[in-house]
Write a structure and sequence with these properties.
binds zinc ion; eight-stranded parallel β-barrel; binds 3-methyl-2-oxobutanoic acid; 16 strands; TIM Barrel; Double Stranded RNA Binding Domain; alpha/beta; cytoplasm; about 525 residues
């Protein structure tokens, strides 16, 4: 079945979302899913249906809205998980159940406490139940890279007989090297009976910085699906970055000889959206989507580029979606133009009330900032949006004083559970004073793990986009806020994180009890 079509399986909404503090609301997941569909990904892993009722609902909504991509739910190899996944993808045009169980000696002995026969039995049973819901069933041997090859051959043979159509070989802990994974795929494709009847898939983590190199080596070894995330988002050092795999196969078609369905001009908009929603900012020197990825600083390079572009450029910035900021709307734009642009950007509006509220914020921004770009519109909805967020804390008023030689002070009024509460605090800087003041009222007892400010567009009238990551007894959340005043943006981000802490957490499929 080896063709030269490479299936792009995006797991930003599942493995990406397992990153600390990257949890998204249902509405945010829908926005990302719409953008992934626009990008042209073949399979969207929309979540882990058994994690929480919220995850189940998000997958079902994505399944009923997305038409062009296959919608997939992850499930551990047990009946309850598989049935939840099967139900969640029911509305999809094309739905997939992705079930997994660990196969390495260390995982079987210490995590599962199961022997090889028990693991094979659970996997086969899981595939058969999944096939009651869909023909499109994927099986993953978790920690496959540290698993014994003869055992992998045996379990893959059994799951293919039971009806699995895609076989995934994850490098769960990012331990592989390109040479090893290339050999692993070659061996499995040779030794597993009927290996030509299924699609082989790679799923690489980036702990040694080789996730993309390993995924590409797997493709050379025969993989025809890669599992990846936008910006390489994911637990620890992350997953393989979609944009890097896609552009490597395109620019070096001579080596990989595969094609994808990805519309590359949608890469940068996808990267921006995921970064805004999760608060995981992209480093400037990141390949393809980093702000400097196409900037030619040195005089020699600029000279070369001006004489002949290809002297220093192997791909064009505009081909991956970099364009000079597009002026979108202005002070005089009306409600209809505003709504139309939000729709085009995939920012779904739930009600007239929400549209009115956003329009007021847009007008207010347009008064302070003469030019409004797409990035500004995305930032307008910064902060967790949607029905699953309880807005316990709201900013009513903020005043900060900061003068050379004096201790900065913040005076603010918060609405907490509907009641206005004033407070004043000093701090080492205006932001520090503001956060201290909020904590006096909120008493969350959480630790600040990350505080990050990013200018959304160029110019000193740019909005500042702030991410605040809080850790409350091990639960980690990220809040976002945007404003032309970065102290206000910071306060909004802190309050967003506090509001997000009041919503329920969810189970992690790889570390929770299996049965
Ligand atoms: O890394 C991993 O092994 C996974 C599996 C659940 C596919 O994410
Ligand atoms: Zn993973």
């Amino acid at each position: 079945m080896t063709s030269n079509r490479l299936i792009i399986f995006d797991t930003t909404l599942r493995d990406g979302e397992q990153s600390p503090g990257a949890a998204m609301t249902k509405e945010e997941k829908l926005r990302v899913a719409r953008q992934l569909e626009r990008l042209g990904v073949d399979v969207i892993e929309a979540g882990f249906a058994a994690a929480s009722p919220g995850d189940f609902e998000a997958i079902s909504s994505i399944a009923s809205i997305i038409k062009d991509s296959t919608i997939c739910s992850l499930a551990r190899a047990n009946e309850k998980d598989i049935r939840r996944a099967g139900e969640a993808i029911k509305a999809a045009n094309r739905g997939r159940v992705h079930t997994f169980i660990a196969t390495s000696p260390i995982h079987m002995q210490y995590k599962l406490r199961m022997n090889e026969e028990q693991v094979i039995e659970a996997a086969v049973k899981a595939i058969k139940i999944a096939r009651e819901y869909t023909d499109d069933v994927e099986f993953s041997a978790e920690d496959a890279i540290r698993s014994e090859v003869p055992f992998l051959v045996r379990i893959f043979d059994e799951v293919i007989k039971a009806g699995a159509k895609t076989i995934n070989v994850p490098d769960t802990v990012g331990y592989s090297t390109p040479e090893l994974i290339y050999e692993r795929f070659k061996t499995l494709l040779e030794q597993v009976p009927n290996s030509d009847q299924v699609i082989w898939s790679a799923h690489c983590h980036n702990d040694l910085g080789m996730a993309v190199a390993n995924s590409l080596a797997a493709v050379r070894g025969g993989a025809r699906q890669v599992e990846c995330t936008i910006n390489g988002l994911g637990e620890r050092a992350g997953n393989a970055a979609l944009e890097e795999i896609v552009m490597a196969t395109r620019v070096r078609r001579d080596i990989y000889d595969v094609t994808t369905n990805i519309r590359t001009e949608e890469i940068v908009p996808s990267s921006r959206l995921v970064s805004t929603i999760t608060g995981y900012v992209v480093q400037p020197n990141k390949a393809i989507v980093g702000a400097n990825a196409f900037a030619h600083e040195s005089g020699i390079h600029q000279d070369g580029i001006l004489k002949h572009r290809e002297t220093y450029e192997i791909m064009r910035a505009e081909d991956v979606g970099w364009k000079t900021n597009k002026l979108t709307l202005g002070k005089l734009s009306g409600r209809a133009a505003f709504r139309a642009r939000l729709d085009e950007l995939g920012i779904g509006i739930e009600s007239d009330e929400q549209l009115n509220e956003l329009f007021v914020r847009f007008k207010d921004l347009a008064d302070r900032k003469s030019e409004i770009f797409d990035e500004d519109l995305h930032a307008l909805v910064a902060g967790h949006q949607g029905s699953d967020v309880i807005k316990r804390f709201e900013l009513v008023e903020l005043e900060v004083t900061s003068k050379t030689g004096q201790t900065p002070r913040a005076h603010l009024v918060l609405k907490i559970d509907g009641k206005d509460m004033p407070v004043s605090q000093s701090g080492s800087g205006p932001v520090d004073a503001t956060f201290k003041a909020i904590e006096v009222l909120a008493k969350s007892g959480s630790n600040l793990e990350l505080y990050q400010v990013n200018a959304i567009t160029s110019g000193t009238d740019s909005q500042g986009e702030v991410a605040v990551r809080l850790n409350q007894n091990g639960r980690i959340v990220t809040g976002q806020g945007a404003d032309t005043d970065i102290v206000i943006a910071s306060a909004k981000a802190y309050l967003d994180a506090l509001n997000w802490l009041t919503t329920e957490g969810k189970a992690n499929p790889q570390t929770e009890e299996v049965m």
